[in-house]
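Q: what sequence does this backbone want?
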């Protein structure tokens, strides 16, 4: 009557995750997980690329950081494989923004991990728009939040996590200053984007975002949105319509063609760059595209 070994280990793993989730595990961990892993490093799983990038910066060499999503998948649409859902429940720490990735939310509900860092408050998200990473200073605040979450799970590493969050903040403040200086002449300019992923960037630097496809790029633009984008292009003398790298954007392309504007790429920074570029490099490329294409 002995079940196959693989069934036992899978069931034991889920049971261990449930037990750990239901009680306060001792710091430092014991058999079955809790705190730092057996080799001394935390296992951190994140639900979106900006959170992965921040967590990697804060973790340094003291923790292993991975993404729950397959590489290159769209955060709005990705579906989790069972192994990815299991990686979430087995993690020492999950860093997530509820609402951004439905598959991650469902997996965390079904089998909660030991510790979740919910960055909603640190990111200071407004209304339904979760694309907070367009604002470097919100990213810095999330870095501090992640550092505290990792420190709680691994108190021995606390000073390192906090120091690296401080270095991250310095890099992001420098990025913010470059954006603020470069875009100061553009205050009030209209930013027409296919995917409405730049609301926080627009707010910080005084731009007015007009999204053709809305917050979720997989939803087709409505006639009302197309009319609003057309009016914005005509009224504000918009020279450039911005596309995201990974979307097909047929409707927005047709709009740009019909209105005679130029086009350029603005990366929503939702997907890890295939070329291994750092988020800061992508943000710099976005700034160059804004300087070249905005009417200011
Ligand atoms: Zn998005």
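A:
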């Amino acid at each position: 009557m002995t079940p196959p070994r693989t069934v036992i280990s899978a069931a034991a793993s889920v049971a261990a995750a449930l037990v750990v989730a239901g009680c306060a595990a001792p710091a430092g961990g014991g058999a079955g997980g809790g705190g730092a892993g057996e080799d001394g490093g935390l296992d951190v799983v994140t639900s979106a690329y900006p959170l992965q990038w921040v967590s990697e910066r804060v973790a340094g060499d003291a923790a292993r950081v991975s993404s729950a999503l397959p590489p290159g998948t769209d955060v709005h649409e990705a579906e989790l494989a069972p192994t990815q859902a299991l990686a979430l429940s087995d993690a020492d720490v999950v860093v997530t923004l509820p609402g951004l990735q439905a598959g991650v939310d469902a997996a965390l509900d079904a089998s909660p991990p030991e510790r979740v860092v919910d960055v909603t408050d640190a990111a200071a998200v407004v209304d339904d728009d979760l694309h907070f990473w367009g604002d470097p200073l919100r990213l810095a605040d999330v870095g501090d939040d992640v550092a505290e979450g990792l420190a709680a799970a691994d108190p021995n590493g606390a000073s390192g996590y906090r120091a690296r969050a401080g270095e991250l903040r310095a890099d992001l403040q420098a990025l913010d200053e470059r954006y603020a200086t470069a875009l100061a002449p553009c205050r009030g300019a209209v930013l027409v984007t296919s995917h409405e992923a730049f609301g926080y960037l627009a707010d910080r630097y005084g731009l007015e975002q007009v999204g053709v496809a809305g917050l979720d790029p997989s939803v087709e633009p409505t006639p009302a949105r197309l009319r609003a984008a057309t009016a914005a292009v005509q009224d504000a003398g918009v020279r450039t319509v911005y596309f995201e790298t990974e979307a097909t954007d047929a409707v927005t392309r047709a709009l740009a063609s019909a209105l005679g504007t130029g086009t350029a790429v603005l990366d929503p920074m939702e997907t890890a760059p295939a070329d291994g570029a750092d988020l800061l490099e992508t943000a710099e490329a976005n700034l160059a595209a804004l300087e070249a294409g905005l009417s200011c």
